[in-house]
Amino acid sequence: MYGGSGMAKAILICGRIGCGKSTYAAQLARESRATVLSVDEIMLSLFGQHCKEAHDRYAEGIRRYLFRQSVELVRRGVDVILDWGFWTRQSREEAKSFYRARGVAWEFHFIEISDRAWAVRLERRNHAVEAGESQAYFVDERLAQKCASRFEQPERDEADVWITVS
């Protein structure tokens, strides 16, 4: 964590797709009266399930915008929860550098999930998406493999809060 206690901060939620980040972020927001900033919510609102090869480019633009918004909110005394995964060490280091350069406090929360629990959650999530009960991405086998291959689990010293889902 960077920054002093008692001041507003950015909470960065790290974890694989479907591990429970959004549920955890919503719980934290209720408990702390924080604001959740979600790339997926914006992407799904604008483009639905399928923006194909443009996804990563659009998502990156949204992340840059939300980073700027998060600084404004924290400076106004509002805790901000960034619910977008931080799948790579590089993305985590860039976030730390971004906030450090602006004098903004942050915490990293990591949700570790076993492969078995992940498979169960993805199946449950996909059923909810198909039934129209969830505004989340449908994670087919191709997307699950893409996500699994890109995800770099943090080291213990990278996370301020480590949650294990088995």
Description:
Strands 2-3-1-4-5 form a five-stranded parallel sheet, sandwiched between helices. The chain is α/β, with parallel strands linked by helices and 166 residues long. It has a single domain, classed as 3-Layer(aba) Sandwich (Rossmann fold), CATH 3.40.50.300. The protein contains six helices and five strands. The longest helix is centred in the middle third of the chain and has 21 residues, at 55-75. It has helices at residues 21-32, 39-47, 55-75, 89-101, 115-130, 141-150; strands at 9-14, 35-37, 80-85, 105-113, 161-165. The two termini are 26 Å apart.
Brief summary:
The protein has helices at 21-32, 39-47, 55-75, 89-101, 115-130, 141-150, and strands at 9-14, 35-37, 80-85, 105-113, 161-165. By secondary structure, it is an alpha/beta fold.
The helix/strand order is EHEHHEHEHHE
Give the strand order, joined by hyphens, for the main sheet: 2-3-1-4-5
CATH topology: Rossmann fold
Largest sheet: 5 strands, parallel
Instruction: Provide the CATH top-level class.
Output: Alpha Beta
- How many separate structural domains? 1
Q: Count the helices. How many?
A: 6
- How much beta, percentage-wise? 15-25%
Q: Name the CATH superfamily assignment.
A: P-loop containing nucleotide triphosphate hydrolases
Head-to-tail CA distance between termini? 26 Å
Radius of gyration: 16 Å
Helix content: 40-55%
- Shape, principal axes of CA atoms: globular
Which stretches are low in confidence, meaning pLDDT under 50 for 5 or more residues running?
Answer: none
